[in-house]
Specification:
alpha+beta, 2 domains, 4-stranded antiparallel sheet
């Protein structure tokens, strides 16, 4: 579902909201103030759907289809320094766009080596060496040992794999679509309309909210089984190999 399509009034999120809120064709798209307000409602709805997707399946690493880069960022290592700031996951300088850490690794000669999360009982050591584990606290990443100058010269960077906030809608978007499965794009206009109508028509707002919650549970169920690569076709050879 495109964000806004004034030509085909049935295909846009904004146009669906015009119908749900009984605002008529152009009631939002032709009103600059409402168009900007609904961008806020739509992004709030988008974030709620996004967090539901992340909670439903922690194996499938959800990332907004609209991004054209990988959710992987380098951290420049410094000799004898064990603490680093987690990378900003999207544009700007807001570390709050970083939602979940999925892995920490370094690469040498094209071969990645993953660090393990530290146990709570383990202490950070003030010695130079080759880091093998990490701990996250707030927006900081701590290494179990301080990187030696030799190690820094060899690998240069740590890499952090992460999940991030979705690619937010701009109020004047047209062709951008929500970055999750299209069969559930209606979740965004349902939630956004419920937010808009709450002080105007609480009864209708609650009906849309109930519909949103019901569809969100179905969405989470489908997200939980996104990777059905094997399904019922797992062979005895595969089982024995594993």
């Amino acid at each position: 579902m495109r964000y806004s399509d004034t030509t085909l009034a049935t295909t846009g999120i904004i146009q669906r909201e015009e119908a749900l809120c009984n605002l008529g064709n152009g009631g939002i798209s032709g009103n600059d103030t409402l168009l900007k307000q609904f961008a806020g409602y739509n992004n709030a709805a988008y974030h709620e759907v996004w967090m539901a997707e992340m909670s439903a399946n922690k194996v499938w690493k959800a990332d907004d289809y609209n991004y054209n880069d990988y959710p992987d960022a380098p951290i420049a290592l410094v000799a004898s320094q064990s603490d680093y700031t987690l990378p900003v996951a999207t544009t700007g300088a807001n570390v709050a766009t970083f939602l979940r850490l999925n892995g920490v690794y370094h690469t040498k000669n094209g071969v990645p080596t993953y660090l393990r999360p530290m146990e709570p009982s383990e202490d950070l050591l003030e010695i130079d060496g080759v880091p093998s584990a990490y701990r996250v606290h707030g927006k900081s990443l701590f290494l179990d040992v301080q990187p030696s100058s030799t190690f820094v010269a060899d690998v240069t960077n740590l890499h952090v794999e992460f999940q991030r906030t979705p690619d937010a809608f701009a109020y004047d978007d047209t062709t951008q679509q929500p970055g999750f499965m299209e069969t559930y794009h209606e979740l965004i206009p349902l939630k956004a309309s419920a937010l808009y109508l709450l002080p105007i028509n609480p009864t209708l707002s609650n009906l849309y909210e109930e519909r949103f919650r019901s569809r969100l549970e179905l969405f989470k169920s489908d997200v939980a089984s996104l990777d059905d690569s094997f399904g019922s076709n797992i062979t005895s050879e595969y089982i024995n190999f594993r």
